[in-house]
Amino acid sequence: MFRNNYDNDSVTFSPQGRIFQVEYAAEAVKQGSVVVGIASKTHVVLVAIKRNAEELSSYQKKLFQIDEHVGIAIAGLTSDARVLSNFMKQQCLGHRLTYGRNMPVRSLVDMIGSKAQINTQHYGKRPYGVGLLVAGADENGPHLFEFQPSGMTEEMVAFAIGARSQMARTYLEKNLDAFADCGREELVRHGLKALKESLVQDKELTVENTSVAIVGVAKAKDGTTKMEPFKVFDGQDVNAWIGGAADDKEAAAAEGMDVDDA
Amino acid sequence: MFRNNYDNDSVTFSPQGRIFQVEYAAEAVKQGSVVVGIASKTHVVLVAIKRNAEELSSYQKKLFQIDEHVGIAIAGLTSDARVLSNFMKQQCLGHRLTYGRNMPVRSLVDMIGSKAQINTQHYGKRPYGVGLLVAGADENGPHLFEFQPSGMTEEMVAFAIGARSQMARTYLEKNLDAFADCGREELVRHGLKALKESLVQDKELTVENTSVAIVGVAKAKDGTTKMEPFKVFDGQDVNAWIGGAADDKEAAAAEGMDVDDA
Amino acid sequence: MFRNNYDNDSVTFSPQGRIFQVEYAAEAVKQGSVVVGIASKTHVVLVAIKRNAEELSSYQKKLFQIDEHVGIAIAGLTSDARVLSNFMKQQCLGHRLTYGRNMPVRSLVDMIGSKAQINTQHYGKRPYGVGLLVAGADENGPHLFEFQPSGMTEEMVAFAIGARSQMARTYLEKNLDAFADCGREELVRHGLKALKESLVQDKELTVENTSVAIVGVAKAKDGTTKMEPFKVFDGQDVNAWIGGAADDKEAAAAEGMDVDDA
Amino acid sequence: MFRNNYDNDSVTFSPQGRIFQVEYAAEAVKQGSVVVGIASKTHVVLVAIKRNAEELSSYQKKLFQIDEHVGIAIAGLTSDARVLSNFMKQQCLGHRLTYGRNMPVRSLVDMIGSKAQINTQHYGKRPYGVGLLVAGADENGPHLFEFQPSGMTEEMVAFAIGARSQMARTYLEKNLDAFADCGREELVRHGLKALKESLVQDKELTVENTSVAIVGVAKAKDGTTKMEPFKVFDGQDVNAWIGGAADDKEAAAAEGMDVDDA
Amino acid sequence: MFRNNYDNDSVTFSPQGRIFQVEYAAEAVKQGSVVVGIASKTHVVLVAIKRNAEELSSYQKKLFQIDEHVGIAIAGLTSDARVLSNFMKQQCLGHRLTYGRNMPVRSLVDMIGSKAQINTQHYGKRPYGVGLLVAGADENGPHLFEFQPSGMTEEMVAFAIGARSQMARTYLEKNLDAFADCGREELVRHGLKALKESLVQDKELTVENTSVAIVGVAKAKDGTTKMEPFKVFDGQDVNAWIGGAADDKEAAAAEGMDVDDA
Amino acid sequence: MFRNNYDNDSVTFSPQGRIFQVEYAAEAVKQGSVVVGIASKTHVVLVAIKRNAEELSSYQKKLFQIDEHVGIAIAGLTSDARVLSNFMKQQCLGHRLTYGRNMPVRSLVDMIGSKAQINTQHYGKRPYGVGLLVAGADENGPHLFEFQPSGMTEEMVAFAIGARSQMARTYLEKNLDAFADCGREELVRHGLKALKESLVQDKELTVENTSVAIVGVAKAKDGTTKMEPFKVFDGQDVNAWIGGAADDKEAAAAEGMDVDDA
Amino acid sequence: MFRNNYDNDSVTFSPQGRIFQVEYAAEAVKQGSVVVGIASKTHVVLVAIKRNAEELSSYQKKLFQIDEHVGIAIAGLTSDARVLSNFMKQQCLGHRLTYGRNMPVRSLVDMIGSKAQINTQHYGKRPYGVGLLVAGADENGPHLFEFQPSGMTEEMVAFAIGARSQMARTYLEKNLDAFADCGREELVRHGLKALKESLVQDKELTVENTSVAIVGVAKAKDGTTKMEPFKVFDGQDVNAWIGGAADDKEAAAAEGMDVDDA
């Protein structure tokens, strides 16, 4: 309960040039359940652990589709995430109405970064208490971005945010070189392994508590490019991955796409 | 009377990333009298205990109809509930005027969630000091949502909020698997049993202190679907349920609908 | 002079979820002189004790007509009451201009409730420091509502607010069952008896310090319904009631209406 | 220099439901020099003691004409009084332009009451630090109102505000019954006697330090009604009253009106 | 360095009904160099001591022409004076453009009084830290007004504000009766004598540190009235007055006006 | 680190009538490097020492041209100076566009004075932390003004502001009588001598650290008047003056003007 | 954790005339990784060390292109840099649309300086917590500017900002005279050497952690001038420079320009 000075609002620098309220907002991210994202040359996957705060709820969503080509994983304040999510949906919709094509992922990420920065520089607001992993695919290929409450956004090869996410990040760093050439299924399995690292002891991944989302740009057999739209998998849909025996090719076929990444 | 730091307003994070004012608002919900909601495949019921704060009042309402297809149960600050209730009525009305059909329950819930989140991120306002259970039925079937002062909204199978609601939640969790296939009358009886768990010792459910509300989508004998509009039952109308001997079929017939859920 | 924390403004919750400023505003109501209201099936009466703060004033009003069919009794800050009173007059006027009939009493009460709630949720304002009893008659019959600084409004059978009003409420609770079928004159006498309970020792009701107001919907002998408009009685007009020997029928006749409630 | 809590601004209630800043503003009224007002059936008089703060000033006004039919006596902050005075002048002017007749005195008083109440309920303003006695005559006869910083306004038979005004009020209460039938001149003399009661020892009323204002509705000999416009008397014009031997009829004649009140 | 309570801003009354910030602003006036004003039946003169804060400055103005018929002497914050001065110039100009004649001096003074009062009743501003003597001549003859930071304005026969101005006021009070019939030159000499009283020991009036301003309405020999416009005299122009031997008639003639006041 | 009271913002007077924040802003001026200005009957010169805060910067400007006929020397916060400088440029440009001639220097100075005063009387801003010497020439001849953070502006014969400027001012005061009739070159040399007085020991004026600016109105041989536009001299252009052997006539000729002031 | 006074916001001067919040913002710059800029007569180069805060990120950008002819290096808060960067891009775009040519570098720098100054003089904002080196080329040749959080901007020959940048600045000062005539490649090598000085022990420049940007105006063999647009080099593109054996002429040729600066 000790009161640190210079930490009352986000328009006050500490003598060391720090903005404590922004750092505290980052703590809110660490209290959300962990989410993991990994990008290969063709796909981005997001995997998340759904916290069973209330046994009575049908499900607690961690992964959200924003647009056909992009989605997010959230860690932190759910209500803040909804604000950003709605904002992103509007931006994507507006972009398509105006330009007739999907909004580039980087542009979208830049817009929420700028929006979030405002809350770190004006009195009477607070930073968003949520971190995001943004997974998308555009004409430049698949992208994975991290968004922080400070408004900072960075493109990542793989990343994890939320409670105990450091363990997941350690796994990701060890396997960093492998991701670029992973297939869709392999990526998911890497993600789930990373996710497992962050679980508290005796906890297991189950069809109830695990979510997976995939977006991709896959080269078809005839050489043309096909997008695999962002899709969230819950419940029995994640069973095969948790069981660990899915066949990449078959799974992809089930999505109606031929892949040659294996 | 100890002054916690970082808890003066809802635009200040604590060093642990918490927003105390939002948590304190949640305490206001806990001081309201308990309300219980349960959803089956065909119906959602809300049951509430009416606190007799003033013997002289005609009645103190806990359940409110928002629109033909949706209603709420409230726990917390009644005045704040009215603001949200009025807002919801306007949204439903506006939606029907614009689109010619009932507003989907999830959309409605999302709107109050977003509205409430604003009060947790702007200086000079306070979070709403009220929790809601939103019961509705739309083309996707019946829905039960919880709304919290933080702006968080979650779809639930069954839930209870308000004073001593934990006991009701324990009952609900134990019987969770039974609800999906319950008939209309059975749901009400489950709700009343859960409600009883939260009563202080020596207190009984009576026609004076008990409210019930029901909304449903029932399959008629000819195979078509009929909506049972949201309706609140007070006083003698709840006598049969409290007495415990109502016959599902008869009761439903009294509502002018044939049901095949028994 | 002890400074409670969390009680500086109405946008701060205490850790227990209370809004102290709203509770303090309720204390202002308790410092106003007592007013009593009772509703029967045909009438609502308001009775008030006029505090002789200044011997030199012509009179200090406690009962105010808002519209033909509705009036209020106030306890608390007179200046705040005027703001609400002016607001109510405008609403009633606007309603009649727009719809060609009297505003339903409940709608009117809802509007001041919503107006007052705003002052409990925005920084830089304070709650209204006044409580109201609203007495009115509309096509649904006579109504008595209580309005509190929190914005809460509740329909009551009978109620009293202001200094020492608990004694009056005790009287009202004891006689609660009798009110519904009371005649106009009997209601007034009940009100005055309740009022007397709240007087400090050695103080008596007099024509100088007592006000009475009546509004009603009375069934005439030919079976049609006639409204008795809201009217305030002061000075010699209250003499008969204080003396205690008024004859209901005569008094009603004096108002130009036949009543069959005796 | 002790700091009371809850007394920093006018939007904070104390735990007892008091608004200290409004009470402090009332203290500013008590520091102004005393003014007295008395109403009879035909006239209202205001008398005031002019404080000789600066020997070098031509005169320090205490009584001000607002409109032909109404004027004020002030006690407290002169600058605040000017704001209210200008506001009242505009209201009267606007009323006459719109309706072609003088503004009713009560309406005028209600408007400054409402204007002043705003400053007791919004942050960033302060209550007006001035009290007024408003004397006017309209078709309902002569009126005397008191205005307080809280925005409260009350019609009075006779009243005094300002420094040591309690002594004047005691005089007024003793003679309260006499005022209604007093003639114009007699009223002034009562006012001056009350004023004298509030003077500090050894101080006398003189033509330099005494102001008198009169407004009236006088019945003429032929039975018609004539208004005596609000007029302020200073210097030698008040000599006769201070001397004490003025003849009512002569004085009235000097004003060009026949009066039958003697 | 003791912190008085209730003195942080001008929207807070002390428990005694004082507004300390307004009183502190009056202290700023006392720190300006002294200015003196005297009015006769035909003229108003302003005399001022120019403080030689900086030897290098060409001159430091204390007297300013506002319009042909009016000017001011200032004591306090020069920058605040400029704001008021510019405001007055605009008002005078606007009045002449609208009405085709000079603005009455009292109207002008009322406007700055009202403008200044606003700063004593709204949060986020501060009172003007400057006092003014306003000297003007209109169809009602010559006028001298004092303006205070509180917004109070008062017409004076003679007055002095600024550092050590009490000594000058004592001189003025002693000679008060003489001023009304003084001629133009005699008035100036009285003003300079009063000014001398306020000088610190060993300091003398010189052509460098003395300013004189005169405005008047003089009766010409042929009986018509002529205005002597407001004019400031500095440097060698004040030599004759300081020397003490100026002849009224000659001086006036130099201004091109015949005067019969000697 | 002792906290003075009453010094938190510029809308609070101290009990002595001081505005500490304005005084503190004046301290910022004293931390800027020294600048000197001197006016003669025909020219104004500004000389400045350029602080070598960073060896790596090309140059640090102290003198700025505002318009053809006017320029400034700054001491204090460079960023604040830019705001004022841009404002002045816009004013000059706007004046010429509107009136077809150069803005009078005094008008320009009045405008920045008024602009700066606003920041001393409104909450939420701070005074400008910069002092200016404004040198200009208009149809009334050459002018030198000082501008202070308080908004005060004063015309000067010669002045110096910034660090250790008191020593320069002492030199200027000693030579004050000589300046009026100085020629252009002589003025510069006086300025440089004054500047030298303010240098810390062992520091010398060099072509790297010295700036000179000149603006003038010179009478040509044929009797007509020619303006010498404001021009800043840096680097080798100031060598002759620092060396001390410049010939007035030659230098002027180099500027293309004949001067007869030698 | 000691609380310095006067350092809560950027609208409060300390008694010494300092604005601590601006100084604290400058500390944020010192916590960014170091960037170096050097200008010759023909080129400006920026070199930066990319901090590997997260191993998993694809890259962390320090150098950004603003427009064809200008770019920036940043040190401090990345989110703040984005705001300024977006602003600069818009300005450049708007300038070209309006005037049909590139915005002069100094104008662009002035605009961000003015924009940043606002945040140091208005309550409720904070200074930008980022420093910039702006490198550009326009018709006046190549330019290097430093931008500070205070809004101060200065043209530099060479400079370094960020963590441990003092060591880099020392290198730059020692070699200051050499830069003007350096060729493009030589400039880069000087920049990298300066950068190395600021590295913590045992850390090396690598293709992963080093960024280089170049903009230039090069004279072609035929005597005409050609601009080398601002371009950022990362990864393998910087290998030659780090290896240290690049040939100026060849490298330039690779850019498609002939240079004669060797």
From TrEMBL, chains A, B, C, D, E, F, G:
It comes from the Eukaryota. GO terms for cellular component: cytoplasm; nucleus; proteasome core complex, alpha-subunit complex. Residues 6-28 form the Proteasome alpha-type subunits domain. PROSITE patterns: PROTEASOME_ALPHA_1 (PS00388), PROTEASOME_ALPHA_2 (PS51475). Its main location: cytoplasm. GO terms for biological process: ubiquitin-dependent protein catabolic process. Belongs to the peptidase T1A family. This is Proteasome subunit alpha type. It comes from Lasiosphaeria hispida.
